[in-house]
DNA sequence: GCGACAG
DNA sequence: ATCTTGTCGC
């Protein structure tokens, strides 16, 4: 797919925050998004380093048949970090190499599931929102741990499909979603061009057997393999 | 002021 | 994210 990283890239945290504030209004959180997507994409990045600016990064994108969850296409890209890891500015670290991997994709996914937050972010503009705005494609964030916001554990059922609102400052920012019976929930939030119900429904459909959706699992494995191949 | 903090 | 053995449980 053809996409381009913005020419201007932040030199520091203040500039990065300014960019998030400027792009935030462009994210659509009402959807409805793809009701029956044919292609799901999963993205992840593996690192070799301490979280600093010279870490080696390996990005991976997997495109799955939404119905069978079989791999249709996959791509990787390796590069150096352009930004240190800063909570809340996570996207500036991973986006460049993720975009590179996406460029070599022949298929255009109907929705992309990101490893991290979307709207459930201190400035309501997590990685999934950023990637959605840059690509124009529907995106959702599926994080392994919560970031901004909290939920009432007592309100979260123990069975697969159970969920509880993630709220932050009285605002609903996402949902804690149980993808397997008795397993820790994942934290879903909207990225762009999708609504929370659809994001949760697709996440659940992509996670028929394990806690994490197959998109995330395969992208995670592919990114590690790519990093290992680049490192030796 | 202090602690917490997606990956 | 990454560093990592054994171990509890189905």
UniProtKB/TrEMBL annotation:
<keyword id="KW-0378">Hydrolase</keyword>
<comment type="similarity">
    <text>Belongs to the endonuclease V family.</text>
</comment>
<feature type="binding site">
    <location>
        <position position="115"/>
    </location>
    <ligand>
        <name>Mg(2+)</name>
    </ligand>
</feature>
<feature type="site" description="Interaction with target DNA">
    <location>
        <position position="85"/>
    </location>
</feature>
<dbReference type="GO" id="GO:0004519">
    <property type="term" value="F:endonuclease activity"/>
</dbReference>
<comment type="function">
    <text>DNA repair enzyme involved in the repair of deaminated bases. Selectively cleaves double-stranded DNA at the second phosphodiester bond 3' to a deoxyinosine leaving behind the intact lesion on the nicked DNA.</text>
</comment>
<keyword id="KW-0227">DNA damage</keyword>
<keyword id="KW-0540">Nuclease</keyword>
<dbReference type="Pfam" id="PF04493">
    <property type="entry name" value="Endonuclease_5"/>
</dbReference>
<protein>
    <recommendedName>
        <fullName>Endonuclease V</fullName>
        <ecNumber>3.1.21.7</ecNumber>
    </recommendedName>
</protein>
<dbReference type="InterPro" id="IPR007581">
    <property type="entry name" value="Endonuclease-V"/>
</dbReference>
<keyword id="KW-0460">Magnesium</keyword>
<keyword id="KW-0963">Cytoplasm</keyword>
<keyword id="KW-0479">Metal-binding</keyword>
<keyword id="KW-0234">DNA repair</keyword>
<keyword id="KW-0255">Endonuclease</keyword>
<feature type="binding site">
    <location>
        <position position="44"/>
    </location>
    <ligand>
        <name>Mg(2+)</name>
    </ligand>
</feature>
